Amino acid sequence: MSISNPTVPQTFNASTPLQLISGSVLNEYQLVYETYGQLNADKSNAILVCHALSGDHHVAGIDADGKTGWWDGYIGPGKVIDTDQFFVVCSNNLGGCRGSTGPTTINPQTGKVYGADFPIITCKDWVASQNELRKHLEIDQWAALVGGSMGGMQVMQWAIDYPNRLRHAVVIAAAPKLSAQNIAFNEVARRAIMSDPEFHEGRFLEHNTVPKSGLALARMLGHLTYLSDDMMGSKFGRELREDKLQYNFDVEFQVESYLRYQGEKFATKMNFDANTYLLMTKALDYFDPAADYGHDLSKALANAKAKFLVVSFTSDWRFSPQRSHEIVKALLDNDADVSYAEITSEHGHDAFLLPNAHYEGIFANYMQRVLDDIKTAEVAA
To answer: In the chain, pLDDT over 70 holds for what percent of residues?
Structure first.
């Protein structure tokens, strides 16, 4: 079945070497990205969307395979991020597995897939590569950067590293750094992958196999942290798959079946690369922009010039509202223009992806503010 007007990915081929924080250098790399809407005459209506851990460039619309974008409910004509008004860009992060240069792409020095040889990537590296994409698109300044979870961390890093290149920053369900508990969850997920006999020290593609069991376990663990206890209770409770207990170690509870399904889907149907999962979780662990400023977040954000919207969700225990409070306080310490919303939701960390009238209203109102700033600047010009 053919898809009418599918979203089509594009590729930016960067020839300027990228010096990574780890000390490694990528002499050349690719970023796959998609765009939505039209760039206006003075290129002032561009929005960059930064994706979360398992996300990619396909953020909205339907692609040639019939897959709907991961934030399609919020991006499109007449939606919260209105593509009748904005030109939206979303790229697959460097180190990803959806077309951008990463572990599954060919290492030009060896002629083989990078696999385990792909260097460690940090949030600063992602932002630096995205800035090269900005230059390629000849966009002087983003009207706004928007991101949830890991994407929100990228937005903060942009505001710190390139303060003159964005006018608004929308940081959703994020944190200024991971807690020890979050780092621990990531480590257990990585151990699950690396302990899989099919991992082969990261060279599983050379062995024509995939560490599916490890990936599935990592996803199951991650999924647990994305949902709230109340949400899992209301959705599954202690409901059994059969009418009675079987007194064995097979799947008996519906919640067990759900988690196994999510893990299996991630490892097989979604075909997410295990080395990419390791890289993304490690980049999350390393994210701590205040570390370069004497561990003072207020100092880290002192040069930020963007106006901010910070959003958290009451049941998000992965990145709790208290973590957003830290961001807001640091911005207020610098007399920044910041709006904050704490949304009541039972959906846990996943709430930023899901429908919520209060959330949508606040988000839409702020994007109208972004649009009004664009129009004001056009009149002044």
So the answer is: 97
